[in-house]
Amino acid sequence: MTRHQEIRPILEEGIDRKVLAALRARFLTLNAARLERTRQSMSSRQQAVLTLLPLLFHVNHPILPGYVSSATPAGLAGFEPDTDTLAEAQRLSRSFSYKPVRGKPHQPILGLFLMGSLGTVAQDDQSDLDVWVCHDSDLPAQQLAELQRKCDLLMAWAATQGSEAHFFLIDPVRFTQGERDAKLTSDDCGTTQHYLLLDEFYRTAIWLGGRTPLWWLVPDYEEHRYGDYVRTLLDKRFVRSDEVLDFGSLASIPPGEYLGAGLWQLYKAIESPYKSLFKLLLVEVYASEHPGVRCLSLDFKQAVYANRLELDELDPYIVAYRRIERYLTLRADHERLALLRRCLYLKINKPLSQPPSNRTKSWKRRLLERLASDWNWDERQFAQLDARCQWKVRRVVEERRALVNELTYGYRFLSEFARRLQIISSINGRDFGVLGRRLHAAIERKAGKIETINLGIAPDLAEHSLTLVQGYDAADDVSWALYEGNLTARQITNFSPLKRSRELVPLLAWCHRNGVIDTATHVALHPGDSGLTEAELFALLTDIRQAFPMPPAALADEALLIAASPVKVLLLVNVGLDPLSPQQPLSFDELTESLRHGVTRDNLVLSIDQLTLNSWSELIATRYEGASPLPDCLRDFLQELPVRGERPDLQVRCFSRNAGMALARRVETVFADAQLMLDDPSESRYLLQVRQHYHLLDLIAGNVRHTTLSDMPTLLEHLGEAHHSIRPIKVERHALEGTDLALILGQARPHCLQVFYRIQGDLAEVTVLDEFNALWRQQLTYRDEQSLLTPLLRFLQSVSYRRTTQLPFEESRLAAMDILFYRIVPSTADHTYEIERRPAPRENVSDPFYDIQAIVEPSERGRSLVTLYCNHQEFSSLEYGPELFAAVAHYILAQRRGGERYPCYITDLDLSGLHGTGHAQTVQHLRYKTQLEASLNQALSGL
Predict the structure, then answer these.
(1) What's the rounded Cα separation, in Å, for the pair 806 and 738?
(2) Taking the CB of residue 577, how many other CB atoms lie within 10 A of it?
(3) Which intervals hold domain Adenylate cyclase class-I N-terminal (predicted)?
(4) How many CA atoms lie within 13 A of 520 on its CB side?
(5) How far is Cα 30 from Cα 232, in angstroms, rounded to an integer?
(6) Where are the domains of the chain?
């Protein structure tokens, strides 16, 4: 049964209790050595916490830490404190006196274990105490709550002693069945990692007291029939059930666990790459061997049975490293192997380029030196890694490439693994998608995105001094470059830049996002041909820093379940530009007037640099310049807003020497007004004026459109287009000043016809807003209001009546539209206009107006066929051809007294042949009316 002290019990040959006792003794010997290594890496106060933990769960005393009440479960199975433990307790509380309980008291705390990096080469001053508190399955809920409260108090007490402790209540029965209520380690991703968690527990756990694991006593080659083996041990009383804890076997691992563990380590690797990539690689090794994987814990157990108890070789991190090293070597993945070794070196954190802190080398240093010798590393590599806390941009960018390659490879490996095995898992859909988006947000490059280079690589990238230079690139285009140090213009040509950028603001945002520039960094400026000053540069950096504080808030999964949307937006207006020339300073009155109109009419906005932090924690830079930076920026800003949800925090800054703050306020007002309109459920439009150009934004959430209109006639033509939906127009408060159009558009009402008229000497301008607020305008010779308005009223009434007659009677009553009249008159206060509501004109039967009806129909040749009826006398193009309008003009002139030549008006128009029943909009009738009247009056004037 033994060979070189190897123990190989075989169930069918019988089991010797002495052999089982020897095996238990080997595990406890190894356990004691690991516990001692754990203590060696702790301060004296931390050692005291570790020493007292078993006692604090064994007794329930008011003067000891963690006391809740006399009903709190206490009593650690089989535990009796030694003299060192009691002495430590009395140092903590001199009045404490331990009194053993006589008889066989109930001991509900079945076992205490540490797990994780403690006692391993990876333990450091910051390592947590992850403590499994195994308890009786029969504890009622109230006592469990008290025990949890005790754990919370012990965690708080340990923190006062310099130890970060986490306690996890474990019901061994439920755990074996795969049920648990909480995460069991700080690296645990939930219930999807039962077997992998158990594997980690078996190979890293340090027993502190209570029952010992039954798994110790089952040989690795019997793992496949673990249940039968355990039953034999217990039923035949080779092992007493009150001496052991059964957490289950590792005979097989469901493939979904590899996926869950891999996703979790990828998630953690984004911010803490070195530790997590090490574990991610181990998951890859396991998954690549599925279904024939052999867990490291089984190798660990086999080594104990073989009496190979060398601590260094059984160190969980070293064992894991050896397994991954073998895997990568067979695959010839030399770059990944180099990254693995860097991860392990940095995790061990024993700088070999420096002499040991004590005269004697620690066991960790000796172990690391042996490893590094096998790797053929030299002093240069030690020095480079040991200086990681001083790494700056160039070294971090180089390391980022290797880390991003590994993250990307890991995600693709897991994706392919899940697809190949068709894994159905609770984490497969939602969490896999969320992680993909998290990786995309962290490492994916795209236009305008400010790249984050420091993925937990170095603690501080801030430079003491930098030089910012504007120059020209290889294509002779303007560019900006950032150099290390404070360089003169002559020195710059001898150095390569840290970073180049076509624009200034993205470069400054990159510096801030990555911590390259902080409040202590001195930046020397060589502005080149730009107008950037040191004062403006300082202000830019200050505002970027205040708008986007670093580090950004943690990104919640919920944010990644929906599309990214803006959270904070900073608009930087006229960076390095001043539209109000300092060579020609304006007077106070001129400056006030210019700013009052300047955002739009005088085009004081020459450029806008937009920085957007979105809900995925991405920082995006966009620059707007050229003919229309303001409306283009506004369009994109509104377009990016979510249809529903919170609006982003918008800040606008301008550092122009001439009234930059006032200009920023004006831009902010424009954006605020447009955003309020977009929030209105009714679809509307927003009109801006830049000099003599007009910009109309269709405010449809998710589909904002920008139309540029070159002049007033083009604007009027656009406003007159039929659109068959109510689309009110909000005019920017300083657009269209000096005209009555802003006043008219502000009066728009749905489902009615509004007539506005303005009289200027012998001319009148008539404007109509139809039922959908489409606009029609015409200039006419003015005689009096009656002759100006009555023909139009007749026409609008006829069109409205014709439309309602095509509906059922009850619907027609509801569809009837009011016709409202307004007169526009000059304001008595200033040079603006006012609107007066006027009654509709009253018709007098004796008025010399004739009904002229027109019917327009399509022809086969694509031209419209027109038929006119004057006092019910038909005049058809079929009969008169091109002389149609002359014939009608002759007829009208013959009917007038004295042959007066005043204009003719169409009073009724039928377009149903062109547009179908009920489809023609009033503005379309008015446009046809204008064309027909022009032809008719031209013929009349020619007679």
Answers:
(1) 43
(2) 17
(3) 20-216
(4) 5
(5) 26
(6) 16-251, 283-442, 462-551, 751-847, 852-941
Residue 654, beta-bridge partner list:
573
Strands 465-472, 244-245: pairing kind = unpaired
Joined together, the tokens standing for residue 46 give: 């931390």
On whether the CB atoms of residues 832 and 775 are closer than 8 A, the answer is: no
CA distance 218 to 216: 6
Residue 20 contacts by C-beta under 8 Å, 6 or more apart in sequence? 9, 217, 233, 238, 239
Transcribe 396-418 into DSSP letters: HHHHHHHHHHHHHHHHHHHHHHH
Strand partners for 129: 165
Q: For residue 819, what are its two tokens?
A: 């016709």
Query: CA–CA separation, 649 vs 655, rounded Å?
Result: 20
**Max CA-CA distance within the chain?**
139
For residue 637, count other CB atoms closer than 10 A to its CB: 23
Q: Please name which of 421, 403, 429 lies closest in space to residue 287, comparing C-alpha atoms.
A: 421
In degrees and rounded to multiples of 5, residue 609 shows phi and psi of -105, 120
Residue 837 corresponds to which tokens in the numbers above? 């509501």
Q: Residue 74: which of 112, 31, 28 has the closest Cα?
A: 112
| 3-class DSSP state of 793 | helix
Cis before 291 (ω within 30)? yes
21 Cβ contact list (under 8 Å, min separation 6): none
If you average pLDDT over residues 534-543, what whole number do you get? Answer: 95
Q: What is the DSSP string of 158-213?
A: HHHTT--EEEEEE-HHHHHTT--SS--STT--SGGGHHHHHHHHHHH-EEEEEPEE
Q: What is the pTM of this model?
A: 0.82
CA 790 to chain centre: 61
DSSP string across 617-680: S-EEEEEEESS-HHHHHHHHHHHHS-SSSPPPEEEEEE--TTTHHHHHHHHHHHHHHHHHHHHS
Does pLDDT of 182 surpass 70?
no
Rounded to the nearest 5 degrees, what angle is found at the Cα of 626, between the Cα atoms of 620 and 628? Answer: 85
